[in-house]
Amino acid sequence: MTMKSWTLILAMAVLSQAAEIARNLRPRSELFPRAPVPQGPGHIVVTEPAAPVDMRGFCGQRKFDSSRIVGGVEAVPHEFPWQVAVTIDGEGFCGGTLISPDWVMTAAYCVDGARQLSLLLGAHDRTVAEASQLTIETTEYATHPNWNPSTLANDIALIRLPTPVTFTPEIAPLCIAPSTEPDHVGDTLLVSGWGKTADGAFQSISPILMKVTAPGITTAECAASYGDIITDNILCIDTTGGHGSCNGDSGGPLSFDNNGVYNQVGIVSFGSSAGCTRGLPAGFTRVSSYAEWITLVTGLVI
């Protein structure tokens, strides 16, 4: 056999392995099938840095203290005032995070190709018309320029609000982890969202905001389940015991309590195709890896 043949066989093996790893990943979104449109009608093209916006000293403050989420518990109503419910084209559902008066952060997988986004802020029970709720319609968003839907690499997007929101006790921003944020291996991290609370085709997303805590794990531990797709731009948590994110949580926040001020360290991205309760790691976009891009687009001082 010639060297060229061996090279071809090796290349095919590598591609096959990559395809198998990709099949083992499942986005944590609840999206109906839709034709992919890499740049939808509202896709923002960033041509110059945005004007500075400083939320430090105000962001990340839970207004109500409390002593997908699978294996989690109901959040205290409005304890996470930055939580946003994102409905895509009237059908799909994801989470998001309010990070400034003008911007919501979510996963690129959620909005890629979307034509209309409906954002629900200030909600605890999505099925009840709470006085605190605010619904905003928008078509403008920016996905990361290196977003790869095949591998879920750089799974981050920013949604621009048509007018600035007024902060209230139930609507307030979450702090963004800076580029110097630690890796949080072994730290207790918090996931919040309206995702499914159990596996199953007929299991619907939760009407009530849920929360769960889980420890961060190393890149190597996560790669043991998913292979080379796991890079330093991804943060994973241990979901042993069925505690973690599930479908419908995608785009929502993974946060860390930094002495009473919450930083968003991750964006819910993916889990195992075997299911949410199998105890395999859940993957998140590592926010600190994208601090510079977030500032470029939004002007947010991080």
From TrEMBL:
Q: Where is the signal peptide?
A: 1-18
Pfam families the UniProt entry points to: Trypsin (PF00089)
The record's section on SUPFAM superfamilies has: Trypsin-like serine proteases
Q: Record's InterPro entries?
A: Peptidase_S1_PA, Peptidase_S1_PA_chymotrypsin, Peptidase_S1A, Trypsin_dom, TRYPSIN_SER
Q: Which GO terms describe its biological process?
A: proteolysis
One MF term in the entry's GO annotations: serine-type endopeptidase activity
Q: Where in the numbering of this chain does the Peptidase S1 domain appear?
A: 69-299
Kindly state which keywords UniProt assigns to this record, in alphabetical order: Disulfide bond, Hydrolase, Signal, Zymogen
Record protein name field: Chymotrypsin proteinase 6E
Q: Which organism is it from?
A: Daphnia magna
